[in-house]
Amino acid sequence: SSCPVTHLRNSARAGPAATYQPSTISLERHAEVFRRVKAWPAYAPTPLLSLPAMAARVGVGRVYVKDEGQRFGLGSFKPLGGGLVVEDLALAAAAKGEAKPVIATASAGNHGIGVAWGAQQAGCRSLVYLHGGVSAGAEATIRRYGAETVRVEGDYAASVRACAADAAEHGWEVVQDTSWPGYEAVPARIYQGYTVVAEEMLEQLRSELSPSMPTHVLINAGVGGFAAGMCAHLWERLGSERPRFIAVEPTEANCLQCSAEAGALTASPHSDAGTVQTGLDCTEVAEVAWRVLATGVDDFVAVPDAVVEPAMRLLADDSPAVVAGHSAVAGIGALLAAAAQPGLQQSLGLGPDSVVAAV
């Protein structure tokens, strides 16, 4: 079934020869972060799975999926960022002989779980602000890790504002995975935490029996933080050998695509329908992330919700089976759409020799 998947080739993309200009995300900072994360008792690399049946179905040579559903038993990569910053804050307070900080964040789900878990590990009180669209199930999971939850009327942006206002009033530390003017160090640190996923993936690809670096990497995007961490790391690590980097977001929340089209940070139009891809339901790109993505992304793809269930089903039925949530499969959805639309497949440069990696 052909869905209206939109594709924008990034006219501002850096050429293969362009070297990465280390900004807030860099290999130098990565080394310290990876050392720290490896010391966490729960740390283990998540599996990188080869899915031959999927590759055959979408007409490419290989498909690798990095299964972040298995991270720390928490279901996503988010704790690599939120947990890291909570640990930073707790260590800084201890070094100064101060009381443990109170941690506050706003989340549509997985980031809140990561922060709550990190706070529990560090013995800190935490509050997670949730907007109306966040499910009772996600709220229950967040509370299971000891966080208090605060419900906020309105959308995700409203929950971020409410959290920041309350934290300013009470002297809490805000651990937010998006940036705004004057608030950049924390989100940049969070995105640096996400580079652990990219480094693990490269180590796993190198240890494959027939090592072939991916020709294409598909990364799901909300505000763009995870995409920025992955993009920066692969760019600085692999240079001109880096894969074609494709950012995939929901049609109903395509703020990266809108920004690329406008050539400047631009919010995506408000959608009354919303999207089932709640973790990616963001209408504004984080400025810190955009500094990497504006030239680091080769292609911006937006996929409708219609691709989500089929992608989840195919992954679950594959061997090995991959259990993925609604916000985890945009990239796989884009691959399936490309297989059904020769024009899209061609414009993404996908073919029998392609080696595709998705997270």
Give a short synopsis of this structure.
By secondary structure, this protein is an alpha/beta fold. The protein has helices at 27-38, 52-58, 79-95, 110-122, 136-144, 156-170, 185-206, 225-238, 255-262, 287-296, 308-317, 330-340, 342-347; strands at 6-9, 48-50, 62-66, 103-106, 126-131, 148-152, 173-174, 216-220, 244-250, 299-303, 355-358. The strands form two sheets. A seven-stranded mixed β-sheet has the order 1-10-9-8-11-3-2, sandwiched between helices. A four-stranded parallel β-sheet has the order 6-5-4-7, sandwiched between helices.
Fold and architecture overview:
The structure is a single chain. The protein has 13 helices and 11 strands. The strands form 2 sheets. The protein has a 7-stranded mixed beta sheet with strand order 1-10-9-8-11-3-2, with helices on both faces. A 4-stranded parallel beta sheet has the order 6-5-4-7, with helices on both faces. The radius of gyration is 19 Å and the shape is globular. It has helices spanning 27-38, 52-58, 79-95, 110-122, 136-144, 156-170, 185-206, 225-238, 255-262, 287-296, 308-317, 330-340, 342-347; strands at 6-9, 48-50, 62-66, 103-106, 126-131, 148-152, 173-174, 216-220, 244-250, 299-303, 355-358.
